[in-house]
Amino acid sequence: MSRFTSLCVTAGLICTGAALWPAFAADGGAETISVRNFPTYWLQDRTSQDDFLPPPSGYGPVVSELGHPYVPNGAGKQQTSRIADLANPILKPWVIEQMIKPNADVRAGKIPFIARERCWPTGVPGFLIFAHAAGMYVVQTEKEILIVQELDQQTRHIYMNVPHSKKPKPSWYGESVGHFEGDELVVDTIGMNDKSFVDNYRTPHTDRIHVVERFKIVEDGKTLQVTATVEDPGAFNMPWSAVQRWKRGPFRNILEQVCAENSEGFYDYDVVPMPQAAKPDF
After folding, report:
1. Domain regions of the chain by residue span
2. Euclidean distance between the first and the last CA atom of the chain, given in angstroms as a whole number
3. Is the pTM for the entire model greater than 0.85?
4. Phi, psi of 120 (to 5 degrees)
5. Rounded to the nearest 5°, which phi and psi values hold at 98?
């Protein structure tokens, strides 16, 4: 039994993956559920290759530039780095200007910054592709849901059935509040700082970003699907949406993977020091 599972049992928490919805009644009331009744683990769905999928309609996320497709490691082809399509109409001019340099660096053969590879917090909705690179676990209580990504155990806190704070202090993951609408978990996030990117294409945002995620289990319980809608009048010309999916995995204990910030030495990254708090922010 891993420390993660031991913590859940000792604290009396409900540690679930697929049980995220069956574990709660529509009115938010908790049911008694054994940790062993549901799988705890969701595996990445390789159809998205660690990038967002486009929404069924409307404006979508930044994708690879036409003619320069992203090829991940292990795909049976020469791996490539991402070059963002800057013609996407969602992008404000200053965002495009900021993204030109990393695109040029990739063309010059440099390895671009990716939050997961540098062990940085990712913010929201970036967490959906950060957690997607490894496994994802869910810990839930009646008042709070934790979403834990296996790589480095970075964790999101979702406070259930409560309003947002009047003035949440900006932070990496902001303030997420959730509620259930039928068979969907709806999560509303505000209060993020502007230090993260919304994707692996290094698309920036401002502290005005507002994200709404709708989590739903589809395909007869085999797939967890999330549709995220992003609004940020400081960075984007209009709201846009993106989709992410995970496959239900067999039960396994969480791997305690330690990730050390600023591991840039191996690939000649531009050195960008990890921000350090001079004093506690809570």
Report:
1. 3-248
2. 32
3. no
4. -85, 155
5. -70, -30
